[in-house]
């Protein structure tokens, strides 16, 4: 699965790790995250993320 990086702070969302602090299960693809999910480090919306190259 692709990883996504926050364009504002550099946080990397890794689907294999999920986001336990936000109750996002491991294996959750970025596109399957809830619409109201935000970056756990800076609070940026999903629109501020791009695919990590």
What is this entry, summarized?
0% of the residues lie in helices and 15% in strands. The protein has strands at 4-6, 12-13, 49-51.
Question: How would you sum up this structure, described in words?
Answer:
The structure is a single chain. With 53 residues, the protein is an all-beta fold. The chain has no helices and three strands. A three-stranded antiparallel sheet has the order 2-1-3, with no helix packed on it. Strand 1 (4-6) and strand 2 form a beta hairpin. It starts with a strand and ends with a strand.
Order of helices and strands: EEE
Continuous helix count: 0
The biggest beta sheet, please? 3 strands, antiparallel
Determine the fraction of residues in helical runs and give it as a percent range: under 10%
Instruction: State Rg.
Output: 10 Å
Assign the structural class, choosing from mainly alpha, mainly beta, alpha/beta, alpha+beta, or little secondary structure: mainly beta
Q: What descriptors fit this protein?
A:
53 residues; mainly beta; three-stranded antiparallel beta sheet; 3 strands; 15% strand
SSE topology:
Blueprint: E1 4-6, E2 12-13, E3 49-51
Antiparallel strand pairs: 1-2, 1-3
